[in-house]
Write a structure and sequence with these properties.
alpha+beta, Immunoglobulin-like, 5-stranded antiparallel β-sheet, 4-stranded mixed β-sheet, 1 helix, 9 strands, 46% strand, globular
Length: 139
């Protein structure tokens, strides 16, 4: 009887130790700069890529720890990144894991109109590159 109580006590202690050590390994995500994640943001209008134009470059507006659309005003965002002319993406480097609101603007040359749109995005990766398609539409 003593051995079964000792065994049960050891088992319970092992489960508690494992649980506590597992909690320490959990990473806490807090959106922002200073990390090792790169986002490649690709605006798409009706599933067609939007290429950055010399007269209207694709732009990404990133809000940290937000899941709702903050609005069109660039001052409402924590980070603004402009894409290179002729590319179909905006690359944002040095982010930490967390919750973001990703908003983009560009010019659809097939209809010669400004397009914009955004999505909330949450990721737990602490390094690497993520490619995200951002649906955009006319004003």
């Amino acid at each position: 009887m003593k051995n079964s109580k000792t065994g049960l006590l050891f088992f319970v202690a092992a489960v508690i130790a494992f649980t506590v050590s597992s909690c320490k390994k959990d990473k806490k995500c807090s959106a922002g700069t200073g990390g090792n994640v790169t986002l490649i943001l690709e605006p798409e209008h009706h599933s067609d890529p939007i290429y950055s134009q010399p007269d209207y470059r694709d732009s990404a507006f990133i809000a940290f720890d937000k899941t709702e659309f903050p609005g069109d005003d660039p001052s409402l965002y924590d980070l603004v990144v402009v894409g290179a002319v002729g590319t179909k993406q905006v690359t944002v480097s040095g982010l930490k894991c967390g919750k973001y609101y990703l908003f983009m603007t560009g010019k659809d040359t097939s209809i010669v109109e400004r397009v914009k749109g955004g999505i909330p995005y949450d990721f737990t990766e602490t390094e690497g590159t993520l490619t995200i398609k951002i649906p955009v539409t006319e004003d």
